[in-house]
Structures are given as C-alpha cells and as structure tokens.
Amino acid sequence: MTEKELEAALSAFPRRQLCGFATPVQRLYRLEEEQKTGPVFIKRDDLNGVGPGGNKVRPLEYLLGEALDRGCDVVIASGQENSNLCSIAASACCRLGVSCILVHNNPKPEHLAGNMLLNHLSGVEEHYIGSIPEQERDRYVEELADRLRREGRKPYVVENGATSVHGAIGYFHLPLELVREKTEVPIRDLFVPGGNGGLAAGVVFGTALLGGPFHVHVITVENTKKTLEAILDKLFQGLKEYTGLVPDVPVDSVMTIHEAYRGEGWGIPTKESEEMIRRLAQREGIFLERIYTAKTAWGMCDLLSRGLARREGACLVHSGGFASLFYQYT
C-alpha cells in the first residue's frame, strides 16, 4: 500500500484533528557518541500540542471523532489519579468544546501534582471514588453513563485506556510520518513501548500496511512476551475487520517483542531505566518518565550495544508522560 492509499483509507473514519503537524524527529548526537553507534533519532510524540502531550492524542483523534459524529455531549475517561490518558482527554475535550468527566480510583488528593494539577486547571469534572480495583471503577463508569442517559445526556466512554481497535488506527499516522521524514540515513529500526498494546498494535500494523519500511522493536513494560503477543494478535485481527485493510507483508515479519526490560512489571522502574532517565536528560535535554519511555529507551540502547539492532537508523518513539514525572518523584 502506498502512502496516499493509506491516507485515503484513513479518511473514511471519523476523526477530529488535534495535532495538525507531523511530530518532530531529532537526532541524538551525544547519546549516539556515547553508544558508539548512529545516527540515532527520537520521534517526539510528546510534542504534539495537546495538554501535556503524548501518544494518547493519536487514538483520541479517532475516538472523539466517533463520539462527536454520534452526537455525544459528554466524554467519560477513567484511570489512576495521575493518568496520562485522563489528562490528555481533558485537554482534548476542552479544545473540541465537549464536556469531560474523569473518574479516578483513588481518594481525593490533598496536594495536586503532575497530571492532577493539569486536570484541575482544565476545569473538568472529576470523581475520586477511593482505592478500589479497576473492575469496580469500570462498574462505576457504567453506572455513571447510565445515569447521564436517564438525564437526557449522550455520554461516550473512553474504554481500556483508549486502547481499542477504533483508537489504534490513529497510530497508523506515525509510520506514515516517518517514511516521509528526511533524515541523514533512513530509519531502519523503530523502538516503541508495549503496555496495553494500542500504540504497538497501531504502529506495527501501519508499518506492515506500508510494506515494512522499518522493523518495530516492541519493548514490553508490563506483560510477559506471551501475554503481549496475545493482546496484539487480538488487536491485529480487530484492525483487519474494522478497516478492511490487509497488510502487504505479515505483521510478524516487521515486529520483535522484547521482554527483558520490563523488570517486575508496570510502574516498577529498573535500575537501568532509572539511569536512562538521567542519561537522556543530561546528554540531550530530553525528559523520559518511569513507566513507559525509560524502559523503552534502555531497551534500544542495550539492543544497539549488543548488535541486536542495526547500528544506523535507530529511532526511539517518545510517547510522552512528562507531567507524570512531577508525581513519580514525590
């Protein structure tokens, strides 16, 4: 599939554009000097112009497009108190002029920091429902949506951290932007975090649709390789059914999942990922965060050092999370 064909296919789906430009690609001169490799690049998906920025902007363009096309007048998003999704959803709704309700399974905080402060400044409605399991939070969201319907509202629920087939197509734009990027050498290896799978599935599937211009290294930050494979396979199948698009090459041929960098799982940094935060801040003036980007960056550097990725044309996808740093280190 050509770039224009993919663009034409994407135009068939409801979308409200939130980021009107390709996110920048920068060369990491000092990091590549230290690694004795290069060129090494970073795709700055943290600089996409909505709230604190980050990868959730891409799926929200399509999810909120779907919501507004259905005539919905209030969006409900849920997550932990410092959720990047919640904060970006709040800012995106402010931009589009639609009401937003955030539901957090935490007690109401005494001190606002990180994304909690941004949500407060955005002026959206927030429900702090106490320290309860995610499944109970989901039931609360369902009951809230039902109550709003009885009141005559039309709610749209952003489910599963915006990881859905409808949202994952937003990530097709990332490889599309990269194949058009004019870099000193072509980007050959792309490094993305693998959390609940939306970003990785969209980037891998979009890359396969374009014929595999680069290899996508998925650094799992949470699940085992086997578990993440199952999550991605389900999303790949859903993408085929929803879009009607069949990749020119098998998705497995453009993807490798690496589980050696996840440590003890989601939200638990490793010694190496902690050091990676300092390395990139002190050498490139770029800030990573503990949950996703630091583990992905460490995975890239280690794979390059061990010769398991090509030494020229590596590119790290920075998926955002800057605001959460102010919470993670308090």
Structural commentary:
The protein has 330 residues and is of the alpha/beta class. The protein has 2 domains: 3-52 and 165-328, Rossmann fold (3-Layer(aba) Sandwich); 57-162, Rossmann fold (3-Layer(aba) Sandwich). Helices cover 42% and strands 15% of the residues. It has 13 helices and 10 strands. The protein has helices at 3-10, 29-35, 57-69, 84-96, 115-122, 134-150, 165-168, 173-179, 198-209, 225-243, 271-284, 293-305, 325-328, and strands spanning 25-27, 40-44, 74-79, 99-104, 125-128, 155-157, 189-194, 215-220, 255-258, 314-318. A 6-stranded mixed beta sheet has the order 1-2-10-7-8-9, with helices on both faces. Strands 5-4-3-6 form a 4-stranded parallel beta sheet, with helices on both faces. It is globular and about 60 Å long. The protein starts with a helix and ends with a helix. The mean pLDDT is 95.
| Overall CATH class of the largest domain | Alpha Beta
Mean pLDDT: 95
The portion of residues forming beta strands comes to 5-15%
Number of domains: 2
- Cα(first) to Cα(last) distance is 47 Å
Measured as a percent range, the helix fraction is 40-55%
> Main β-sheet, in a few words?
6 strands, mixed
So what's the oligomer here? single chain
Under the CATH scheme, which architecture of the largest domain would be assigned?
3-Layer(aba) Sandwich
- What's the β-strand tally? 10
- Shape summary: globular
Helix/strand order, N-terminal first: HEHEHEHEHEHEHHEHEHEHHEH
Tell me the CATH topology of the largest domain.
Rossmann fold
Q: Largest beta sheet: what is the strand line-up?
A: 1-2-10-7-8-9
From the alpha carbons, calculate the radius of gyration and give it in angstroms.
Answer: 19 Å
Structural class: alpha/beta
Low-confidence stretches: none
The total count of helices amounts to 13
